[in-house]
Amino acid sequence: MYALPPVYDFRLVEEEVRKFWEERNIPKKFLELNRGGPIFSFLEGPPTVNGYMHVGHVRGRVCKDVVLRFATMQGFWVWRRAGWDCQGLPTELEVERILGVRTKKDIEAIGMERFVEEANKLVDHYIQHWRRDSEVLGLWLDYDTAYETRKRALHGAHLVPPEESLRERRPDREQQGRALLP
Asked: Is 177 in contact with 39 (CB distance < 8 Å)?
């Protein structure tokens, strides 16, 4: 039995819970729970990684996580693939600020390769923070094979559960609807 200390330190409790999960490999076990059952496939949004996570992102991600956990409790194998939207004007503008460029000619002068390299470094930085923050929140997704919109391999098997055939294992509509309703 766990007794609360006289002064409750939520950070200590969170760290103990994370350590418990990590020592027992709970997140990975949870991702494999119900493998072989009907598939509930989830391909995240994805969030745009051109800044840090804020409370609005947290709310949306937690709501999605509730649906995924409920589907798992209903017996579905929930394939949770994380993903990152790595493009967009905010990323370009931040890279321009970092490199000190103001015009298209400035970009041409430093070279597109250098600009893209800096953009990739910036996106990697934000992905690292998003993943860490998501894991701290207890959002269990497959981060190791997350899809990224900056990568060309976004078709076919990369966007469906590995080694699984959705046609062969998808429950009929009636069964699927029943399983997700209370």
From this structure: no
State which residues form the domain around 164: 32-180
- Please, what is the angle between helix 55-73 and helix 173-180, to 10°? 120
State the pLDDT at residue 147: 86
**Does residue 13 lie in a domain region?**
no
CA distance 24 to 168: 33
Number of domains, the chain: 1
Give per-10-residue mean pLDDT for the chain (182 aa).
Answer: 80 92 93 91 81 94 93 92 88 94 93 94 96 93 88 57 50 51 50
Residue 11 domain flag? no
Q: Which helix (H) or strand (E) holds 180?
A: helix 173-180
pTM of the model: 0.78
CA distance 127 to 106: 27
pLDDT at 157: 45
3 located within any domain: no
Query: Residues 88-107: pLDDT tens digits?
Result: 889 999 999 999 999 989 99
